[in-house]
Amino acid sequence: MDRVPILKIGDVLLVSIQTDLQDQTVLALQEDLSERIVATGAHGVIIDITAVDVVDSFIGRMFATIASMSRLMDAETVVVGMRPAVAITLVELGLSLGGVRTALDLEEGMRLLGAGLPHAGPAGSARPARPGPALADGP
Amino acid sequence: MTTPSGEEMPIASSDDVVRVRQVVRAAAAAAGLSLVDQTKLVTAASELARNTYAHGGGGAMRVERATGEDGRKGVRLVFTDEGPGIADVDRALSEGWSSGTGLGLGLPGARQLCDEFGLRSEAGGGTTVTVAKWTR
Fold first, then answer.
1. Which of A103, A134, B22, B52 could pair with B59 as two cysteines, CB 3.0-4.6 Å apart?
2. Superkingdom of the source (chain A) (predicted)?
């Protein structure tokens, strides 16, 4: 079974899914991520699905579960990079993922978490953000 | 109307669910379905393959090029298992009802995503689900 690597960038854990997700891989990721959140004290999780061409109800539920779980551990989750065909399919499937925050790409996701990419400016200061949802008003 | 040739593959593990997605993606692309329609069919196949594996105790999927009644070309998928069957088909097709750990989106979701949907099942007698998607 493949395991999805979890990278740490500052205050954020980055999960970039590059494999065709098997159910066990999905379940292992949930566990690995919860452990890493506690171990690192991260306040943000980004799940990058740019390379994912299918999200079925099982995988979609994983996003919602990770978002709820990480919120309980004081971390905000953003799903980034969803392909248009995947978004259309998810809505038709009846899975709107209402509780999951999304951003178009990694950079926007980092900005949403108030983190900014490391090269984006002086350490500790987020790059001037375009007007958008603020992190502080999370549910 | 269906071409006689087709490919059948076993669904015996969650690994096979991943393989089903890959095989269906290739067949949908070869049949000329749009990217969105490919994605819908692959997603439906993923739901149905998981049902076959998780609820039907394993089974098989047959994928074939097919032509709809109005002459449109496309892909038809047939999922079969010899599992316990579905006692209440109407309830299984209603959104939100789940027999186990799922979200209850599998069957109704697959039906929603496809142009053709058929389900035959009886308690104790296994289940056959047929879906098809046609080019636009």
1. B52
2. Bacteria
Q: Is B22 on the interface with A (CB under 8 A)?
A: yes
> What's the CATH code of the domain at B117?
3.30.565.10
- Kindly provide the ipTM of the predicted complex, given to two decimals: 0.87
- 3-state class of A137 per DSSP? helix
| Nearest-5° Cα angle at A22, B35 to B124 | 95
Tokens standing for residue B115: 């142009």
CATH number of the structural domain A6-114: 3.30.750.24
For residue B119, give the amino acid letter: L
Q: Where exactly are the structural domains of chain A?
A: 6-114
As a whole number of angstroms, the distance between CA A100 and CA A110 comes to 15
* pLDDT tens track for B91-133: 778 766 565 555 567 889 999 999 999 999 888 889 999 999 9
Cβ–Cβ < 8 Å for A103, A112: yes
Chain A CB within 8 Å of residue B102 CB: yes
Q: If contacts are CB pairs under 8 Å, which of residues 98-137 in chain A contact chain B?
A: none
Q: How far from the centroid of its chain's Cα atoms is residue A1's Cα?
A: 22
Nearest residue in chain B measured CA to CA from A19: B18
Element spanning A28, H or E: helix A23-40
Start-to-end CA span in chain A (Å): 35
